[in-house]
Amino acid sequence: MILDEGAEILQTEEMFIEDEFVEESVLHTEASSSMASLHDVVVLPNEGLSSTACRPTRDRSAQPTLFLDKIEPLTKTNRLSSGYINRAMEILKTQYPDIGGLFFCTLCGTLDYPQATGRQWMQIVHDASQHWVLVANGFFQENHVLVYDSMAGSNWRSKHILSCMSLLLKTPEKEMTYIVKACHRQGNGFNCGVFAIAFATSLANGQDPSTLLYSPDLLRTHLNECIAKGYLSPFPSTICRVKRARKDSVLSESVFCQCRRTSYMLPAKGWTMVECEICKEWFHSMCADNFPENENETWLFKSCK
Ligand SMILES: [Zn+2]
Ligand SMILES: [Zn+2]
Predict the structure, then answer these.
(1) CA neighbours within 13 Å on the CB side: how many for 143?
(2) C-alpha 275 to ligand 2 mean position (Å)
(3) Whole-number Å distance between alpha carbons of 189 and 209
(4) Radius of gyration for the alpha carbons in the chain, expressed in angstroms and rounded
(5) For residue range 231-240, what is the model confidence (pLDDT) as tens digits?
(6) How far is the CA of 175 from the centre of ligand 2 (A)?
(7) pLDDT in tens, 122-149
(8) For the residues of 87-119, what is the DSSP string, one character each?
(9) Which domains, ranges and CATH numbers included, belong to the chain?
(10) Closest ligand to 275 CA?
(11) Could you give the CA distance from residue 302 to residue 53 in angstroms, rounded to a whole number?
């Protein structure tokens, strides 16, 4: 569940009023920090936590944003919440500490991912609507970001996911190239998160998810068992022997500014862009110093002055 900042606070307040104390792992992040990662997972003890003591106030400078998302056992049809995705990525991070990325997935909402480091990285990202997708780099086709989307159509281009990918990659090049992999497609409207975790587990185990045919009826039971054990083993699958109708699509997207993001903007202050007269590069107001008040004003980026 991705909520905007205001809604998130409200939701948290409601939950705290209902619950006397917190039993789940509480994912805790500073609203202003772009470095929130799995290291920021804080487990609050039950003792000494009354609803009064931890009820957030509206003073955001004093209180970090708390994001509480229960990890409920999966039913046959529920969608996976961010709590479930975060827990799965946390387990993978423990099993495969050399794989980069695997950050707190709620960063999708504000597009604040740090650059993913390491020879290989992966991240389950959200499309800002109702869909989870796995993106990865350094696996099999090492010079491209790979997209494993259990719902990808022929003309895949989720602007929100592309922005997440550009942040994780942070390429110095002018373009980010990526491959939308032809992989197992979900047969319903609620299994994207389950598939994203299955794809991530296969990749981490050295298997290319696009070569696999998963057993849809067994995926949820397997995932529930893995989460209960705190260990993700490969999901039931066989090698895909039929030729998939869709092929991999190799695509590219321009990236800009020091942050190397795509041109996609959130409707928030700071995302406006201006062009430097010398290098002809575009910069965000949030990434540049002395951003011009008047759009028609001649402006130079600091390294071009
Ligand atoms: Zn920028
Ligand atoms: Zn310049």
Answers:
(1) 5
(2) 8
(3) 20
(4) 21
(5) 999 999 999 8
(6) 18
(7) 999 998 888 999 999 999 998 899 999 9
(8) HHHHHHHHH-TTSEE---TTHHHHT-PPPP-SS
(9) 1-70 (no CATH), 75-254 (3.40.395.10), 265-305 (no CATH)
(10) 2
(11) 46
Chunk the chain into consecutive blocks of 10 residues (it has 305) and report each block's average pLDDT, rounded to whole numbers: 34 30 33 36 34 42 49 84 91 96 88 93 92 95 93 79 96 96 90 96 96 94 95 95 83 95 91 90 88 80 86
Ligand nearest to the CA of 273: 1
Give the DSSP H or E segment for 153: none
Question: Number of helices (H) and strands (E), helices first, in the chain?
Answer: 6, 13
Intra-chain end-to-end CA distance of the chain, in Å: 44
CA–CA dist 286, 52 (Å, integer): 36
Q: What distance in angstroms lies between residue 294's CA and the mean position of ligand 1's atoms?
A: 19
Smallest-distance ligand from the CA of 258? 1
By CB atoms closer than 10 A (0-12, 13-18, 19+), residue 16 is buried
Comparing C-alpha atoms, which of 191, 213, 209 is closest to residue 148?
A: 209
Q: Rounded distance, CA 109 to CA 64, Å? A: 16
Q: Note every long-range contact of 92-101, with CB atoms under 8 Å and residues 24 or more positions apart, other chains counting.
A: 92/122, 92/200, 92/201, 92/204, 92/232, 93/38, 94/230, 95/204, 95/231, 95/232, 96/204, 99/204, 101/136, 101/137, 101/168
Report if pTM > 0.70: yes
* Cα of 105 from ligand 1 centre, angstroms: 20
Q: Determine phi and psi for 289, rounding to 5 degrees.
A: -85, 160
Residue 277 identity (one-letter amino acid): E
Helices (H), 34-191: 82-95, 107-110, 159-169
Identify which ligand lies nearest to the alpha carbon of 300: 2
3-state secondary structure of 281: coil
Q: Which sign, positive or negative, has the C-alpha torsion 57, 60, 63, 66?
A: positive
